[in-house]
Amino acid sequence: MYPDRPLSEAFERISSRRSVKAMDLQEPGPDTEALNSILDSALRVPDHGKLGPWRLVVFQHEDRADFGHLLAARWQVLNPDANEAQIRFEQNRFMRAPTVIAVISERQAGHKIPEWEQILSAGAVCQNLLVAASLAGFAAQWLTEWYTYDEYIQSLFKIGDHEDIAGFVYLGSANKKPDERARPDNQTRIQRWQQPG
Ligand SMILES: Cc1cc2nc3c(=O)[nH]c(=O)nc-3n(C[C@H](O)[C@H](O)[C@H](O)COP(=O)(O)O)c2cc1C
User: Fold this and answer.
1) pTM value?
2) CATH top class, domain 19-60+96-176
3) Strand order in the sheet with 99-106
4) Residue among 22, 91, 154, 97 at smallest CA distance from 82
5) Domain boundaries, the chain
6) 80-132 residue pLDDT tens
7) Ligand 1 pocket, 16 CB below 6 A?
8) 129-169: per-residue pLDDT in tens?
9) Residue whose CA is closest, atom 26 of ligand 1?
C-alpha cells in the first residue's frame, strides 16, 4: 500500500496552515540543513515532461541587505520624490525575514508541454515551500509586491522572454499563530459533476 498510513499530525498542520505576514517574521530562520530539506521537498512538485520549469534564488544573511540597496536605488528612480522613510523601507524589505526565496517560472517555449502547465508547476513550488516550511516548524509568506513586476529588478534575475518571477517566499519564525482568515465558502466552489442532459 502506498502511502502506508495517514499522517494525522501533518494533515492537521496543513489543514490549519496560515501565512504569516513578512513583517511578523523573525529569527530563527531555517539553518542550512533545514533550508536544504525545505528546498528539496519544495521542488518535489508535479512537473509534466520532467522539464523542471523553475529556478530558485536564495537570500540569506548579508544578501538581503545587498539586494535591499538595489531595491532602494530602483525605488528612487521610479519615485524621485521618495522620502527617507520609504527609501529605508525598501532597503530593509528583505530584512523582514531571515530567508527569502525567489521562485522563477522558467518555461520551454514551443514545447509539447503547454507553457500554462509549466507555469502551474512553478506555482506548485511556491505552495510546496509554504507547506514544507510549515511542516519543518517555520512560518512563511508568498509575496509578489512591486519588484516582481519591475523590469529592472527582473533584469537582475536575468528574466528571459519565457520566464516570470512567481514570487518571493519569505521564511522565518512567528511569535504566535495568526488569526484565521476569511475564506471562500467551499460549498460555493465545490460541486458534484452534473452530467449534461
Ligand atoms: C502569487 C501570489 C502573490 C501574492 N502577493 C502578495 C503581496 O504582494 N502582498 C500581500 O499582502 N499578499 C500577497 N499574497 C497573499 C499572501 O501570500 C497570502 O495569501 C495571504 O497572506 C493569506 O495567506 P494564507 O491563506 O496562506 O494564510 C500573494 C499570494 C499569491 C498566491
Assistant:
1) 0.97
2) alpha beta
3) 54-60, 99-106, 163-172, 139-143
4) 91
5) 19-60+96-176
6) 999 999 999 999 999 999 999 999 999 999 999 999 999 999 999 999 999 99
7) no
8) 999 999 999 999 999 999 999 999 999 999 999 999 999 99
9) 19
